[in-house]
Amino acid sequence: MNGGKTINTNKKFSMRKISKYTFVFIVVAVLFMACKKNDYFIGGTLHNSKVNMSTYDYLKSNAHGLFDTLLLLVDKAGLKDKINQQGTTFFAPTDYSINNYLLARSKEEQNIDPARVWTIDSVFAYEMDKMTDSLNIYLTNSTLTYDKLTEDGTIYETQKTGAQAVVSYEKTLDPNLGYNPNVNTVPQIVWYTFLWEPLTPPFKAQDITTDQGTRERVQTSGIETTNGIIHVLNNDHKLLFRK
Hints:
Blueprint: H1 20-33, E1 44-45, H2 55-60, H3 68-77, H4 80-83, E2 88-92, H5 95-110, H6 120-126, H7 128-134, E3 139-140, E4 154-157, E5 164-171, E6 188-195, E7 213-224, E8 228-233
């Protein structure tokens, strides 16, 4: 997952010359950072879950531009048709997730040269082989609607060869996630756990250790597009589950 092209450690990333993609990323970052992180959290689900557009077009239509940089990556990787395949589920990372990744990569590069900043252009220049392959970890070949999910979780193959994930639909007693002790109904949240090593049933998703996998909460779930399902990962997620 952390592979890709060898980076020339003598290369300085000039801040004087910003390409159009870097400019787009900066504009997007300013726009969505100006909004509250919870603007897109709607109790874990959407009231009107069916949309008359494809997965790609739905992400593109977001009023806050929350997926603009993600779609730049999807376009650059040539994955548009893949996320629009019939019968798929896309666990969509938001632009916050990409920003978290860029910050982490910048820190790594600054251990070599304190002046370096890792931008979306750096990804395009040096990491697209890895990205093109690794973005497939967010795609499954199943339409994962609520009725197919269990509390303990089920293992699904992702579209990255050899990579698996556990998807679960878990009850929560967290008041920050909609629980109210005065209401009989206990809310449920979709979780996506990317596995670092094979997992043998039986298991409970809640018991998966950090050595076995990384659990990420879905912040908005069950969006039914014309070709499949979108579950949006929380804004604190780091792209590619980078540790």
